Amino acid sequence: MSAQKNPTVAVSAPGKVLLAGGYLVLDRQHTGLVFGLSARINVIAGEIHTSEGVQLNEIIVDSPQFEGAQWRYGYHRAPEGGGIQVVQLQVGEELNKNPFVETTLSYVLSYVDHLYATRGSSSSSSSWLKPARLIILADNDYYSTPGDKQTAPNARFANFGVPLASANKTGLGSSAALVTALTASLLAHYLPKEMYALSSEGGPDDDNVVNAMFHQLMIKRGWHNLPEAARRQMDAYPPQKKWTLLHQDSKEILHNLAQAAHCAAQGKVGSGFDVAAAVFGSCLYRRFSPSVLDALPEPGTPAFASDLGRVVDGTAWDVEVSKKVDMPQGLALRMCDVDCGSQTVGMVKKVLAWREQEAQVAGDIWGELQAYNDGLASVLNENRTEDLTMSLEMIRGKIREMSGLSGVPIEPESQTKLLDALTELDGVFGGVVPGAGGFDALALLMRDDEETKTRVMGCLAEWSKEKDEKVKLMDVRGEMEGVRMEELDIYKGWL
Ligand SMILES: Nc1ncnc2c1ncn2[C@@H]1O[C@H](COP(=O)(O)OP(=O)(O)O)[C@@H](O)[C@H]1O
Ligand SMILES: C[C@@](O)(CCOP(=O)(O)OP(=O)(O)O)CC(=O)O
């Protein structure tokens, strides 16, 4: 296995919008209605080819749409099972850090090292880690950098012409999509199909290999303890069905590993709905208990690799992802970017502090809002467009009550007026302030046709002129699919 060439793979993961369940989703008692978005972050992972005799022990990460966006890392195996530590190498005069990239590399490489050590052959376990080059390409809607700086702004991937730190984020969840796509691309690059089933199709040609992999999965899930008849039935599944179950397990591993890396890079444990959307796409999401990640030591410290392996492969993950989420035919979820300069710092902290103080009142609102959010999920699932406007209005009413009582501008007055004006338009069913709310974004549910789009754009243009703030309809729309492998030819000119 050691002489094997690691394949060049490309993976993309979608951005997110939390249509309903902001704040509630932080609590396992409640759920969030999350949509994946058509804006994706792509990562292409390939080997580095050096001239004969030249040895380069580096992982190079490029984000070529931005200026100076290259990060180079050396790596080594830390003593006492501390996993693979990566150390950034200085390229120019300054050390330009990217904590999401660096943390993800150390987490994923340590996880892969643990897998080879426990399941690989003795030759593969020490020699699997080879130099690699990773290229990040983000769909344009993640950033609202002025068009005059961009070269080829109409290309699928624009060249933004500025450093990443000066690009204005539009709040679509770039770090979660990046961590997920990076994690998946590294797993697919370094692990053979016999150890990791990221692709939903195919699987190894040899049925015996699939059977052996499935046997491992049965042990992991405790299915081997099922009554004899049930076990036999599973053993007799056709290879394609076994592969589908292996693929689902691989997605769960990806989710767990990406959540762990994203939390570590962020330095906090949020609800994780953004990583869940990046992996699974649109879903009803119930968060994992934060205690799942409690026992993890720092990368590089003793036993990090085996502890990470135990956490990622373990059964303590109580996250629930239900795919019973749909969009009625002919409708689209669209996003508006509001460029207003108002910042709402610390909104989550303030809302939670108020909730603690006013437990009774807040508890009632949380309960009512959950019921309205569930109502919205049913309206969408059951194609009841006639109830959609009312369902969105009820949610907004409760959110305004929350805003008023907590003193936090979750749906500020300016957004109320804009949402009301948009809801009046023919073809617009309504909208919400997504996620934590505030001044900077709106999500709309509208008919997916040119006439409606023109009316919405007209209304936003008028609003922008009147209020002297820029509001625009983004190209991005809600999409069901989560992480997926991509063909390399869509990245022509960038590789
Ligand atoms: N195209 C990209 N290339 C490299 N890193 C990126 C890219 N987009 C986002 N990131 C990483 O994600 C960080 C932004 O994450 P964060 O502030 O959590 O915003 P978001 O809400 O979009 O996730 C950046 O500082 C960078 O580390
Ligand atoms: C308050 C929240 O429930 C939702 C926040 O959603 P946003 O989409 O507003 O936030 P970012 O993660 O900053 O992009 C916090 C959480 O669930 O972690």
What does this structure look like?
By secondary structure, the chain is an alpha+beta fold. It folds into 2 domains: 9-323 and 483-491, Ribosomal Protein S5, domain 2, CATH 3.30.230; 331-479, 2-Layer Sandwich (Alpha-Beta Plaits), CATH 3.30.70.890. Helices cover 39% and strands 19% of the residues. It contains 13 helices and 13 strands. It has helices at residues 99-119, 122-127, 174-190, 207-221, 228-235, 239-266, 273-280, 304-313, 347-357, 359-381, 388-406, 413-423, 450-467; strands spanning 9-20, 32-47, 59-62, 70-77, 84-89, 132-138, 283-286, 320-322, 331-339, 428-432, 441-447, 470-479, 484-486. Strands 1, 2, 3, 4, 5, 6, 7, 8, 9, 10, 11, 12 and 13 form a 13-stranded mixed beta sheet that branches. A hairpin with a 6-residue loop joins strand 4 and strand 5 (84-89). Helix 3 crosses helix 6 (239-266). The chain is globular and about 65 Å long. The protein starts with 8 loop residues before the first strand and ends in a 9-residue tail after the last strand. Ligand DP6 is lined by residues 18, 22-23, 25-26, 171, 173, 270-271, 273-274, 348, 435-436. This is Phosphomevalonate kinase.
